[in-house]
Amino acid sequence: MPIRDHLSSALNAAARAYLRWWIGEPNPVDIRDPRGLLRFLQALGPNIVEMAVFFGAASTIINQHACAEDLSTWGWLLCKRPAIPPAVLAVIIGAIFRFSRLSAAAELVIADNLFSESRRPETWGSAKDPIGIALQAIAFFLTYLAIAWLAGNLVAVSGLLLLVACFDWNTRRIIKKQMEKYFEDEAFDPLPNDANYLSISRCRDVVRWYLDKKPHLQKEALKVAGIAVSFLLAVAWDRCNHSWMRTLSYTILIATLVVNEVVTLRWRSERDRRLERNVEIARKRLKEVGK
Description:
mainly alpha
């Protein structure tokens, strides 16, 4: 196989992985097809701009640590060493923001397939104030942007992240409680003669499994605990000025965020695969019934 073909296959695989995991497309296109390449380029531009904001925060943090111009590469790295943890943290915050947006979009799609049109809860998918929604979206972005730009202020960034983590835990608790209430109420069950009865039932089964079998609250509680330890170390470092406290605080903070996000992504991926498989089975059975 020629080197050009190997390179083409590798680039296509990378592009498909980008579209699937970063853009959230369940069936990524092949960029070796002109239409697929155009779709990839259309998706690439806005996301580069979005992440450039967070990379800009990381770059600013690094540039705030002035170094002599005649340093070697190793000397430059040693000089910039204090700026590396907050710069890495700023980029991680950007990635978490992106994955949170993808999760919200995916869960909105899932929510549309949990109830029949005639048996939805009154508050489910009801019209809301578009201005309020826009303001919430802007506030969400500005919060993560502020966290990224404050990554160099260890006490402030760990304190903000601790508040966000507590909010996430409570949100997950409310979602689980509300969904259990809806699923236990027979008034919201799909009717057997509903055209989408099978797909709705299977989708509900997957969501029940996802909410009940995955320890979401425990995971979020561990995230809160990890960030709380980081915050306490940051406060101690601010008072005592021991460099090891700063390093350990950043290490715990970054490790907590990364581990939590990796676990979350794995769980979401498993949920999405189950949904795709169950919906496909439901479609096949519907065709068999139609015959």
